[in-house]
Amino acid sequence: MNARAGTLVLIALGAFVTTLDNTIVAAGAPSIARDLALGLGALQWVALGYMLPFAGLLLVAGALVDRWGRRRTLPAALFAFGAGAAVGGLAGSVGLLVAARAVQGAAAAFLVPALLSLLRTNLDARGRTLGAAVWTACLAAALALGPALGGMLSASLGWGWIFFVNLPFVAAMLALLPVATRAGETAAATRAPPLGAMAAVTACLVLLTAALVRPWPGSELPSLAAAAVLGAGFALRERRAADRLVPAALTGNAVFLGALVVQLLWGLGISGVFFFTPLLHQEFLGLGPVGAGLPLVLVAVAVMAATPLVAPSVTHFGPHRTVAGGLAVVGAGLLALAAVNHIPELLPRVPGMVLIGAGSAFTVPLTSHALDVVAERNSGAASGLLTASRELSSALGVALIGAVLTAVRGLRLDAGTAPGAALAGGYTAGLLTAAGLTLAGALLAVRVLRERRPVSSSPHDKRAVP
């Protein structure tokens, strides 16, 4: 297997397994709670144990990948991820299980930016578009298949296999590393990493994520306030420091910053809507717990079906028009769902879901083009920022769409509407909000993602821009 193919397979496996590990636990939660005698408050930490270190460490991890190099970071992160999975599967107490999940989350925080940065270091411009499309398709597949796979493994083999299933992926990725990582890679020649800045930004991101997912009742405002103080201190330090954690070449790059904002708008809408979709399918359509999530597989199938068309679209229309068109199609899908949401049937929703999936595939140049316009030496930090933006937009989206849904649902209930119909009314309001955010992202993409020559072209590039 050549380096290009090895890189693409490695990226695909990494995208799938790191996302799967965040979704597969949900279906096995009842079995874990029963075997370990956990209440709801303790059970949520099985998920938060992975989520908080993953979201909190992404920015730091991306910067350290550039300092340490991928040849050092990837094997260490893979071994830690596998060790956490093995311990989690064997855990007999909630403390050990949450600790194992935290190890996995921290390892994933290094894995994701290190793998994404391979798009910049190992592939030419056309290959980066393909790699980003593969990454997105695997994310979609893991999001759709995770709950179903978790349910099957828990029912047939026991909940421990929810974690053991990670091990074959880790073994395959370790086998691919010699092919996908370049022998001549060296770490950046910099001073010791700024530990104070690393601690501040990590604590800021952990507190912000915790405020959004609300693990402790009444902790939202103190967590947000502390996150704001730490974030402001980090930003002030970065402006004045000679050795910045986030390179000035990234914060001063208008195209890269624009990509972050577009990604934020997209994630705000889509993540919130999809979080509440299974609830709507159960409460309004009358589907069971397993069947409620299965329609989302249509979205993943549409993403994968449209993926081969992404690279030709970038070639013919440019990344800015391709992303804007994809976001417009996603917005149209959300509006199509809103138009039929009053009907308590599944079939009328299928066209909207297919549009959302197909449109999402065409947003992948958002990642590849954002990496195109940064120097190779900053690819790890850029990948960490892109991933952190995606994770935070997901949490913010759940909070935003949840607030809209709850407010409208409450008004409908006060007016005497039946509970299921009231929920549907709130969900429609959430769909319209998401569509507005997504269409705003489409308009912004046309402006900020216009083709630019990369700051520093990869040795593999045959031309500057796809």
From TrEMBL:
The chain crosses the membrane at residues 42-65, 77-100, 106-123, 130-153, 159-180, 192-213, 248-276, 288-311, 323-344, 392-411, 423-446. It is found in: Cell membrane. GO terms for cellular component: plasma membrane. Residues 7-453 form the Major facilitator superfamily (MFS) profile domain. It is a multi-pass membrane protein. GO terms for molecular function: transmembrane transporter activity. Keywords: Membrane, Transmembrane, Transmembrane helix. Its main location: membrane. CDD domains: MFS_MMR_MDR_like. Gene3D superfamilies: MFS general substrate transporter like domains, Multidrug resistance protein D. Pfam families: MFS_1. This is MFS transporter.
